[in-house]
Specification:
Number of helices of chain B: 0
Largest sheet of chain B: 7 strands, mixed
Number of helices of chain A: 0
Structural class of chain A: mainly beta
Number of strands of chain A: 11
Shape of chain A: globular
Largest sheet of chain A: 6 strands, mixed
Strand content of chain B: over 45%
Order of helices and strands of chain A: EEEEEEEEEEE
Distance between the termini of chain A: 41 Å
Radius of gyration of chain A: 13 Å
Helix content of chain A: under 10%
Distance between the termini of chain B: 33 Å
Largest interface: A-B, 26 and 25 residues
Order of helices and strands of chain B: EEEEEEEEEEE
Shape of chain B: globular
Radius of gyration of chain B: 14 Å
Structural class of chain B: mainly beta
Oligomer: heterodimer
């Protein structure tokens, strides 16, 4: 089955700086890669996603890149703000399988 | 509130007792998923339904676990003879499936189970 690794497990950045979180996946059949943000005690919420036919996607301060050959994808947050502090999870989905395989999470702390 | 709802939000039980959780998906969603999340980890897939049919079960779902979605709407997850290792957050998610591209799964707030 699919295996998703995520790094780093914790990340602290100064407010206004950029944050990058990286994930690798094992199953070349995976073709959809969402990123979820989970605040303490709350449900995971989708913040951005990318499909395997696209190399990069951007939504305001958030961007995701995908390298299918290397089987890795990354989340980039620019101009970080205190409200970006949360745990971020990457995930991979294999078409036809539909279950999310999550990474282990990155706790992002924005230092004011 | 038109989002995914779960009840109860918290459940404390003694080892050996049975517990049942309920999930109400977004009304037009035909797919429903159950995940388990332990502290400091990402959610792990347990099982999912398309309408009332259970299409896949993870090997994490031992024979003490059973899930149903009898009318293709709400779902229940039952754990029999609970063990301390069952303590976790149980998350439900729903989505639409139209035979084409994958669609976003929307998560509920979860049921936090504590087994004493």
């Amino acid at each position: 089955g699919e295996n998703v690794e995520q790094h780093p497990s914790t990340l602290s950045v100064q407010e206004g700086d950029s944050a990058v979180i990286k994930c690798t996946y094992s199953d070349s059949a995976s073709n959809y890669f969402p990123w979820y943000k989970q605040e303490l005690g709350k449900r995971p919420q989708l913040i951005i996603d990318i499909r395997s036919n696209v190399g990069e996607k951007k939504d305001q301060r958030i961007a995701v890149t995908l390298n299918k050959t290397a089987k890795h994808f990354s989340l980039h947050i620019t101009e970080t703000q205190p409200e970006d502090s949360a745990v971020y999870f990457c995930a991979a989905v294999e078409f036809g399988n539909e279950k999310l395989t999550f990474g282990t999470g990155t706790r992002l702390t924005i230092i004011p | 509130d038109t989002g995914v709802s779960q009840n109860p939000r918290h459940k404390i039980t003694k080892r050996g007792q049975n517990v049942t959780f309920r999930c109400d998906p977004i009304s037009e969603h035909n797919r429903l998923y159950w995940y388990r999340q332990t502290l400091g980890q990402g959610p792990e897939f347990l099982t999912y339904f398309q309408n009332e049919a259970q299409l896949e079960k993870s090997r994490l779902l031992s024979d003490r676990f059973s899930a149903e979605r009898p009318k293709g709407s709400f779902s229940t997850l039952e754990i029999q003879r609970t063990e301390q290792g069952d303590s976790a957050m149980y998350l439900c998610a729903s989505s639409t499936w139209d035979g084409g591209y994958y669609n976003e799964q929307f998560f509920g707030p979860g049921t936090r189970l504590t087994v004493l």
